[in-house]
Amino acid sequence: MSRDININVDYLTRVEGHGNIVVNVKEGRLETCRLDIVEAPRFFEGLLRGRSIFEAQHITSRICGICACAHSLASIQASEDALSITPSEQTVKLRKLLLHFETLDSHLLHIYLLASPDLLGVKSFIPLIDTHNQVVRRALRLKKTCNDMCSILAGRHVHPITATIGGFTKLPGKKDLDAILNMLEGMRPDIEATVEFVSTMRFPEFERDTEYVALVSDDNEYPLLTGDLGSTDGVRKGKREYRDVTNEFVVPHSSAKHTRLSRESYAVGSLARLNLSYDKLHPEAKEIASALGLKPKCINPYMNTAAQLVESVHCLEDAISTVEDLKNMGIDYDEEIVVGLNEQSRIPVKAGSGVGAVEAPRGTLYHNYEIDERGIIQHANCIIPTNQNLNNIERDMEKLVPEILDKSDEEITLYLEMLVRAYDPCISCSTHIVNVKFVNR
Amino acid sequence: MKRPKPKVAFFDFASCEGCQLQVANTGETLLDVLDVIDVVEFREIMSEKWDRELDIAIIEGSITDHHAEERLKQIRERSRILIAFGSCAAIGGVNGMKNNFDPDEIGKYVYGSDYHFFPTEKTRAVHQVVKVDYSVTGCPVYIPEFVEVLKAVLQGIPYYVPDYAVCVECKLNENVCMYEKRVGCLGPVTRAGCNSWCINNRNMCYGCRGIVSNPNEKGAKDVLSRYNIPLDLVLKKIDMYNKCREIKNE
Amino acid sequence: MKDSQYVILKKENFNGFITGLSKLHKLVAPVSKGYNNYSFEEVSSGKEIAIKYIPTILPPKKFFMPQQETLLEYDISKDLHTEAVVEPEEMVLFGVHTCDIAGIQCLNMVFSEHPKDYNYLTRRQRIKIIGLECNEYCDEHAVCCLMNTYMPDGGYDLFFTDLGDYFIVHINTRAGEEIIEAINLFENAEKSHLEELEKLREKKRTVFKKELPIELGSIPELFDRSFESKVWNDLDERCLACGNCTMVCPTCYCFDIKDEINLDLSTGKRYRVWDSCQLEPFARIAGGINFQKTRAGRQRHRYYRKFRYPVNKFSRFFCTGCGRCSRACMAGIRLKETLGALMESESREVNA
Amino acid sequence: MERVVLKESAYNIKKGKILSIKQMTENEKLFEIALEGGESLGHQPGQFVMVSLFGVGEAPISLSSSPVTGGSFELCIRAAGKVTNALHRLEAGAEVGIRGPFGKGFPVRALEGNDLLIIACGLGLAPLRSLIRYIFDNRGDFGKVHILFGCRSPGNILFIDELKDWNKRTDISFECTVDQVDCARPDWIRYVGLITTLIPRVQIEPERTFAVVVGPPVVYKYVIKELLSRNIPERQIFLSLERHMKCGLGKCGHCQIQGIYCCQDGPVFNYGEIKHLKEAF
Ligand SMILES: Cc1cc2nc3c(=O)[nH]c(=O)nc-3n(C[C@H](O)[C@H](O)[C@H](O)COP(=O)(O)OP(=O)(O)OC[C@H]3O[C@@H](n4cnc5c(N)ncnc54)[C@H](O)[C@@H]3O)c2cc1C
Ligand code: SF4
Ligand code: SF4
Ligand code: SF4
């Protein structure tokens, strides 16, 4: 079949940030296939220079409002690494909790408000208010609960306030922990309903084998905040070697940087984590995974949405046991941090470099700072999950388009949009907008 | 009393989109809001698009390049009411920190020799480019304030961002003052309206809501020296959100 | 049951008293917030209470005139329908110092004066006050001796004085007596107990010294002569107009009235919220004229509202000497110093 | 928490229905309002009410009509901000909330039997019209009456039809001045210049003349100086002061001028009694 297709999705919607899909098929031959990022660059790494390391998490959380907690946590981790501070067990638990809340929030947002309209054949959740009112209410209720839990723990979800170098400025009281536990347990029925909802959805069948990258560990915990960097192709490196994993490189025919590891591209995110650490999922989550037909190594990128649901269950259950742990341990309020104490030089500052690697909802997020002996940032580098996925998305599109050439333009467009959305790309936070290609230059 | 629902669209410029997310985070209250307005475009969560006249345009983000300026002006032209939404839009916000650097230099730092593909200009707040009818400041926006502004818009009455210090709300909330902890807090010079969000969480105020109209700058400096807080540290902190203050409106 | 005006409560029964009382009523008492800061909060056991405390961040006025309180509810969906309301709460305040009791007495006068404020009065009716004696000074900011509020002088239902192993409790009202009766842990005060109380008071009279060399009675005249004093200009340079000094003052009662409508745009409420004369927009009118443009003028106004104007209107000072404004001011504007500076600048003028 | 309905609360409003609205100038409209059930407001000239729009707020507005009118009252309102602009958008038949009347009005009893020099600047005419109408209604109770009115330009003249009548009346003297001429000047306006330039032109017997002045804050200083130079005793000068007001009950503190509350102790003051108040002017 030879036909011309010209798809230009100007302003891809229901993703965080601005991206355009450009596909050009001439006489059945794929000429152009790319995802342009048109988000206005914000130069965060540039403007971090000269700022105190104690402001870094506050500033970098503003890279992205959707995964602000993950950015804060990656930033804090990098800063603590540079300052050689080891967080307490309590702090680690609370941070894990915060990340769980955000992952839940972000995944649920994606499943319900961003991905499900495609699967239900509407443009957005707005028409669903009439047709699927209970579903929309459930989605908003779940989201609100995640948000409220973040508020208790970190002041708010968007740009958390309490999480800081050394720990938390405000530790949850006994009543707060009870309230969180209550909310978590209260989410269970809605999550069950979500599982039911998702299992009625049919994800497009499309497969492309690729390399998956995520944090990995040797212990029994599903690694989200700690661990080494690992891949399904058998790579394993310490987090300080993150540059060897991300391998930002220049493509000869384009001025843009791509990332790759063992092959032409790699993917991060829920599916990657699941493919690498499936066994460490909470049993409940594993059950859901097998019910959804998800098992490693799953190479259908559309299934990322299902993987998010599985992780949601994991996060919920793990959060519940973490809160129970914290309640049993009892919170040590002496650990409360007075922020700004650096103004009084209470945390010893030294020159150094530190890396933070955190599993953000969308994949591995790296922050890396170099500071001088006054704690002033000299260099900063942040590598965002979406940046790492862009290359892989384009490769997927290249394989997908020829397979669906028999479909109408509208359908092709939808398939492509859905593909991009399945990665839940967070373009707004792409500090390195390295993926713009200028094919027709 | 049923009146036609105003057509509302959200637009984002240079920002983290967290303020839009704040709206989605309101839970079922969102449905109450959607009951009184007709959201016709909201790219973050909707595919619908709208290129006709608008009753209310809600602008998130700062203006950092020529394209953005043009796009914003077009939106202004077809919108009856324009709301600057969030600190990036209302006062320039964190993007203003870029103005500490030469645009070419910072471009080179981040993108290397390809920096010219990403032309950038001095960051400006929305009101520094077009007329703004309402401002919801804050990083992120404080949803109760947003709802208040929205109601003011629907009623056709003005909303004034409070012109007094965050300290007022901080005291109403009976927080221990950061100065008691010998920490420099920007509350005394920052506009209230956030219900002293950060200090309620035992952090300091970072000044994200903009500076009051008549700050006592000399007095504030004296206070810092009273508490032995390095002045440059705090001045820098003011820049974190308020750098665009330096740009004079044409 | 108890015929004498005084009873005692042994320290070992204190916890039982608090727990018992908290089961009967909402009970509010000073608790520590760290950094030598305290606040009145709901308690249910004795160990939560900071018996030795310096004035709380906010004075107990927050219970009589809450930071934000509804005045009127309305519904304009069909006809205009309004209802003036108050949402009072029964409660007992435990551990109120004499300066704060004086503050409540000031507010009582303001809100009972014509036109009466029924929101305040209705709340007032439902609150019982248990005072607690200060055996010594809180800190250097207090001027309670000068303002003559360091000894109990009515305005409470019960009054506790810590005398080591026990509290001696003065029963001042029928409501107070009911509390004593309901919680069966009090014993009759013996003569020796009363003697000990008298001894403490004697000692207090020697410890508490007028904090400034001026007679209370001459303060109004001092202010009459100080309207144009340079002292206010000095405050102008230092004050940040943050409003803290007025928010924390037990006798400041200025408020703003705001309307809040619900999203249905037809039901809502009108409420009042604490306001402060120190804030830039306080006296600004439409058209932009500001009748209190300068921080100097606003600071002067604050001091005159404590030491001069109410003396005419209510025949009492509206400073209770609690020292909160001085503690809350990050600019270090101290009431004692301001008064001292006024006295000094005046004596300089007289001598010149 | 208990919820108690307060029948006696001073924050209760009376329902008022707008009977008619008349555009007077670009920014000012005259509202005629009747209380529910025909209740009389029972005000004195110079008093004010708090006008409420629910969801918007309250604003203090002087009564413009003579108390003698009874069944309804009139408010002349300038669109200046939130509440007043919203009021301007209303149409006849709309309901508003009314609290009051509040404050001390003009000392009508003390004025009786004396000559009057009434000086109104701009919106100051709104409260003074109430007094003037009262005087017309009881003309025999007063001696000579001089009315001076000044405003920015002919386009800002309030109650223009009535002013034309006043100009024709023989039982009073009336002069009008404008600061500047921006459009056709009606022939009955004889002067261009500040209000103070009119004062030397009136013939008065100072000891039996009471001056009543209402205008924006800036004019008082100059007008009073002029009046004193005409030998009118301080205690025979009355003026009405504007302040930020929230409660109208002498509590909220916004309108305080040193020791006094403008809303309860004023807004009409005797100059002799408040001249020592530095914050008053
Ligand atoms: C005794 C008395 C009698 C009066 N009689 C009359 C009368 O007869 N007719 C008449 O028209 N008027 C009269 N006024 C004036 C009238 O009360 C005011 O014009 C009215 O209160 C304005 O209310 P508003 O809600 O419309 O304005 P507002 O919206 O309240 O605007 C003014 C207020 O908003 C604040 N404000 C304005 N802009 C800003 C901003 N950008 N940021 C922050 N704050 C801002 C100002 O500080 C001011 O307090 C009288 C006033 C008094 C005291
Ligand atoms: S903590 Fe900050 S905002 Fe609060 S009173 Fe102190 S200075 Fe003001
Ligand atoms: S306290 Fe300060 S930094 Fe925090 S939200 Fe309020 S204005 Fe912004
Ligand atoms: S607390 Fe101090 S700085 Fe703040 S308004 Fe009062 S005097 Fe001024």
From TrEMBL, chain A:
* Cofactor(s) required, per the database record: Ni(2+); Fe cation
Q: What is this protein called?
A: Coenzyme F420-reducing hydrogenase, alpha subunit
PROSITE patterns to which the protein is assigned, alphabetical: NI_HGENASE_L_2 (PS00508)
Give the UniProt keywords, A-Z: Iron, Magnesium, Metal-binding, Nickel, Oxidoreductase
Question: What is this organism's lineage?
Answer: Archaea, Methanobacteriati, Methanobacteriota, Stenosarchaea group, Methanomicrobia
Q: Which GO terms describe its molecular function?
A: ferredoxin hydrogenase activity; nickel cation binding
* Recorded family membership: Belongs to the [NiFe]/[NiFeSe] hydrogenase large subunit family.
Q: Sorted alphabetically, which Pfam families does this protein's record hold?
A: NiFeSe_Hases
Q: Which amino acid positions bind Fe cation, per UniProt? A: C67, C429
InterPro entries hit by this protein? Ni-dep_hyd_lsu, Ni-dep_hyd_lsu_Ni_BS, NiFe-Hase_large
From TrEMBL, chain B:
Which Pfam families does the record cross-reference, listed alphabetically? Oxidored_q6 (PF01058)
Q: Which InterPro entries match?
A: Hydrogenase_assoc-protein, NADH_UbQ_OxRdtase-like_20kDa, NiFe_Hase_small_N_sf
Domain NADH:ubiquinone oxidoreductase-like 20kDa subunit residues, every copy: 16-152
Q: Which GO terms describe its molecular function?
A: iron-sulfur cluster binding; oxidoreductase activity
What keywords are assigned to this protein?
Oxidoreductase
Q: Which SUPFAM superfamilies match?
A: HydA/Nqo6-like
Q: Protein name, please?
A: Coenzyme F420-reducing hydrogenase, gamma subunit
Automatic annotation (TrEMBL), chain C:
Q: Give residue ranges for domain 4Fe-4S ferredoxin-type.
A: 229-260, 307-338
Gene3D superfamilies cross-referenced by the UniProt entry? Alpha-helical ferredoxin
What does the UniProt keyword field contain?
Answer: Oxidoreductase
EC number in record: 1.12.2.1
Please tell me whether the keyword Ribonucleoprotein is annotated for this protein: no
The molecular function terms in GO held by this entry are:
cytochrome-c3 hydrogenase activity; iron-sulfur cluster binding
Query: Which PROSITE patterns does the UniProt record give?
Result: 4FE4S_FER_1, 4FE4S_FER_2
Give yes or no: UniProt keyword Oxidoreductase. Answer: yes
Q: What class of enzyme is it?
A: oxidoreductase
- InterPro entries per the record? 4Fe4S_Fe-S-bd, 4Fe4S_Fe_S_CS, Helical_ferredxn
Protein name as catalogued: 4Fe-4S dicluster domain
Q: Which organism is it from?
A: Candidatus Methanoperedens nitratireducens
UniProtKB/TrEMBL annotation, chain D:
Q: How is the cofactor bound?
A: Binds 1 [2Fe-2S] cluster per subunit.
Listed binding positions for [2Fe-2S] cluster are: C247, C252, C255, C263
Does this UniProt record's set of keywords contain Repeat? Answer: no
- Superkingdom of this entry's organism? Archaea
Its Gene Ontology biological processes? pyrimidine nucleotide biosynthetic process
Named from the GO MF annotations, one term is: oxidoreductase activity
Q: Which cofactor does it need?
A: [2Fe-2S] cluster
- What InterPro entries has UniProt attached to this entry? Cbr1-like_FAD-bd_dom, Cyt_c3_hydrogenase_gsu, Dihydroorotate_DH_Fe-S-bd, FAD-bd_FR_type, Flavoprot_Pyr_Nucl_cyt_Rdtase, FNR_nucleotide-bd, OxRdtase_FAD/NAD-bd, PyrK_electron_transfer
**Keywords on record:** 2Fe-2S, Iron, Iron-sulfur, Metal-binding
Name listed for the protein in its UniProt record: 2-polyprenylphenol hydroxylase-like oxidoreductase
To which species is this protein native? Candidatus Methanoperedens nitratireducens
| Species classification | Archaea, Methanobacteriati, Methanobacteriota, Stenosarchaea group, Methanomicrobia
